[in-house]
Amino acid sequence: MDLHCSAQAAIQKVVQFLEANTKTITTTTEIAQVATISANGDEHIGGLIVQVMERVGKEGVITIKEGRTTEDEIEVTEGMHIDRGYISPYFITDDILPSLETAASALRPLVIIAEDLDGEALTACILNKLHGQLQVVAVKAPGFGDNCKSILGDLAILTTHLSVI
């Protein structure tokens, strides 16, 4: 127990030190300096990060990945991007049957994001889709475990219409 208390005390001291010594960066020059340092001194990459920061803001998410060409490029995705493929354009589960019924009666399209879908609900969804009673599409939920729940929670906030079951 002493080790735990000592660790907690050390964590508090580190947090206090960081809070006391934090410098908020606001100018483009400061952002470029931090971005360049983070890019191992590559001023070109630092400049690209500044351009992206100007477009997405300080609360935006920046993802850097290896491209297929020798050129560096910026791609901005409005809203949220889920890097997963379709499960099928006809999926549904019993857990979200009320959403299916609501969407069908309101003549609203429905997007289902789920880990997996099958069984009778899948059959009902396919029939509704084929008979033109519902526009529905299903995609695999991104991530796993707590990360998946966190992303789905973000989607719920972003859309204000999503139920996380």
Automatic annotation (TrEMBL):
Q: Which UniProt keywords apply?
A: Chaperone
Q: Does the keyword Disulfide bond apply?
A: no
Q: Name one GO molecular function term.
A: ATP-dependent protein folding chaperone
- Example GO biological process: protein refolding
Question: InterPro entries from the entry?
Answer: Cpn60/GroEL, GroEL-like_apical_dom_sf, GROEL-like_equatorial_sf, TCP-1-like_intermed_sf
Q: Which domain of life is it from?
A: Eukaryota
Q: Does the keyword Chaperone apply?
A: yes
Family stated for the protein in its record: Belongs to the chaperonin (HSP60) family.
Q: What is this protein called?
A: GroEL-like apical domain-containing protein
Whose protein is this, by species?
A: Suillus plorans
The taxonomic lineage of its organism, from the top, reads: Eukaryota, Fungi, Dikarya, Basidiomycota, Agaricomycotina
